Amino acid sequence: YTDIKPLGDKVLVKTKTAVEKTDGGILVPTTAQTKPQGGEVVATGEGKTVEKNKVDISVKIGTQIVYSKYAGTELEFNGSKHLILKDDDIVGIFETDDAKELKPLNDRVLIKVAKAEEKTVGGLLLTKVTKDKPSIGTVIAVGPGPLDEEGNRKPLSLAPGSIVMYSNYTGIDFKGKDGYNYLALRVSDVMAVLS
């Protein structure tokens, strides 16, 4: 085959290659390489119809995206690895290479993770292993919301600046250029707004 045309609400993404060397130049064995979760959109379907409303794909060809870890179907095409996935499996758009600039899509939010405690109340320093993974952060950006039964966007109830508690071990982690950790997750994984 010489061309792939995704159907409906599917997109074809040319995936990024796995990191084979560390920044210091050390080779990473294939068993330790992490599967890439981003790439460039190279083809899109025509969208989908909900009730009588046509809903377009949320990304355009050439857009750099991040997608859910176990989303889509992998394939080899034109000598490169690609992935066909649903529009809803796209977490967000990267317009720059800084994590805090991620533009969440659909029902996703971007959270700046609170820093983990460095010491106990008694003053003992905590090692990386003993630090609790924080589950509190500040909402940086929100997606346009999920589609309702008629194909219209339903705005999210969260706003940037909200301090929230979220479920552990959800979403996609990013390291920002500012040294903070960021997390993109579904709004349904946010458990509470703190005030």
Automatic annotation (TrEMBL):
SMART domains: Cpn10. Gene3D superfamilies: GroES chaperonin. The keyword rRNA-binding does not apply. Keywords: Chaperone. NCBIfam families: PRK00364.2-2. The keyword Chaperone applies. InterPro entries: Chaperonin_GroES (IPR020818), Chaperonin_GroES_sf (IPR037124), Chaprnonin_Cpn10_CS (IPR018369), GroES-like_sf (IPR011032). One of its GO terms (molecular function) is metal ion binding. Transmembrane segments: none annotated. It comes from the Eukaryota. This is 20 kDa chaperonin, chloroplastic. Pfam families: Cpn10. Belongs to the GroES chaperonin family. It comes from Castanea mollissima. PROSITE patterns: CHAPERONINS_CPN10. One of its GO terms (cellular component) is mitochondrion.
